[in-house]
Structures are given as C-alpha cells and as structure tokens.
Amino acid sequence: MKKNTLTTILLLTLLQFSLVAQKKHVLIVGIADYLHDIPDLHYSDDDAYRFYAYMKSTKGGSVPDENIAILIDEAATRANILRTMDKIFSKAGKDDILLFYFSGHGGEGFFCPYETSNDPKSLLLHEDIKKVFKRHKVKNKIVLGDACHAGSIYEGTNHSTPSANAIKTNVVIIMSSKYDQTSQENPKLRQGTFSYYLLRGLQGKADANKDKYITLEELFPYIKANVMNFTQNRQTPFIEGKAPKNMIIGRLK
Question: What are the backbone dihedrals phi and psi of residue 137, each rounded to the nearest 5 degrees, phi first?
C-alpha cells in the first residue's frame, strides 16, 4: 500500500512539473465582416475574443502576451495569418503546445480569410496551416475550427484543394461540423454553437474523470455530444489526426 501511495505521489509530481514546463503558443482568428461578397457572420469576432480571454485566464494557462495573438476581420488576411503563426510558434519548445483557433467561413480543406474571393489562391488551406506547423519541431499541435460551411460560395469555380492528409504531421484538427453541414450561430448563446461548448468544456464541463485537468480525449467527446444534441443532429463536429495520449489543454486548478 505504501509503495502504491509513493508511486501515485511521484506520478502526480511529474505531471505537475510537465505542466509548468509546457507552454501554449496561440493564434486566434475571428472574421465576421468579409471584404467581398461573402455573407457576414454575427458572432465570429465575439467567439475569438472569448477564446482569447480564456487563454489569458488562469484556467487557460495565463498565456503571456508574447505567446498569443488575435486577428479580427481586416487584420485576418491570409498572409498576415500565416506570418503571425510563424512568429508566435517560433518561440515554442519541443514539449509545448501550438494552437490555432479560427472562427469564420470555411469549407472542405480550407478556411476563408478576410479577403477571400473567387480566386482559390485567396483561400487559407488546411495544408497551408500544416506546413507552418511542420516547420516547428513541437510535439503538440492543435487546430480548432468553428467554420460555417462556405462550399456554395465556390460552386462552379474550377479549383481544388489538396487532401487533408497530403502532408503527414502530428496536427490534430477539430472542426465544428462535417463539410456538408452548416456550423450554426445561435442568437440565444450569442456565439457559434461549437465555440460555446468548446469553452464550457475547457472551463470544466469536459472533466470526465474529475482530476481537474482537461485533455483532448475528454474535450472532443463533450463538444461533439453537446453540439449534436443542441442542434438536433444538424451539426456534427469531427476530429482529424490523433492527439498524443492525455494531451492536457486546460486545467481547473
């Protein structure tokens, strides 16, 4: 019994040490007001500000200013997003977490930056993001996308996007809905439904084993179940890639 107790204490000590050493490096993008003829959104900018506030909070890891950036509307051009990702991520150590959050329009294999037009070169491909991630030798890489389906914008446009698996990286992508669905904004929540349950999960609702830590293994099932229930199965979040076992993304203490 005493040996088991000592082993438990040692494991907890090692976990706490790893959490102190592990830092988050975060880029947050929210686009509600688009430059061209793309329908504007109501709450994407608010989603981004709320996620930023969480990341700056104690539960979010109190991410210091030099390790986090937020780009809203006209600041969120394709070039600026990629440039800012490189800048923020370049400071990360190999055991840190790189995190990219996007709220706005998107479709299969891409997000829509501020200046998105009928030119496919204006799109921010998931592969563009993975290429940035690949340049930085960090173990833990996460993309969170609350992206309203924008496929109809490009109907009839001759363009293609590379397969989401074309570049093999250890990037975990969690998207708010399948590509043939619409990610919903809700006036009662005053948020995207996905972003609402993302934050509730991070703030403690996803802590299934009550250990005061939120892992991706806990977070995604919580988000998926609640988003599907709230939208009556009209929106189905999905995950691509495999997270390192017990990757901790939030804490409650």
Answer: -80, 75
Please report, for the chain, the start and end positions of each structural domain, with discontinuous segments joined by +.
Answer: 22-251
**Which residue, chain included where needed, has tokens 């996620």?**
51
pLDDT for res 9? 44
CATH numeric code, 22-251: 3.40.50.1460
First to last CA, the chain: 27
Q: What SS3 string covers the chain?
A: CHHHHHHHHHHHHHHHHHHHHCCEEEEEEECCCCCCCCCCCCCHHHHHHHHHHHHHCCCCCCCCHHHEEEEEHHHCCHHHHHHHHHHHHCCCCCCCEEEEEEEEEEECCEECCCCCCCCHHHCEEHHHHHHHHHHCCCCEEEEEEEEEECHHHHCCCCCCCCCCCCCCCCEEEEECCCCCCCCCEECCCCEEHHHHHHHHHHHHHCCCCCCCEEEHHHHHHHHHHHHHHHCCCCCCCEEECCCCCCCEEEECC
pTM, entire model:
0.86
Residue with the larger pLDDT of the pair 159 and 168: 168
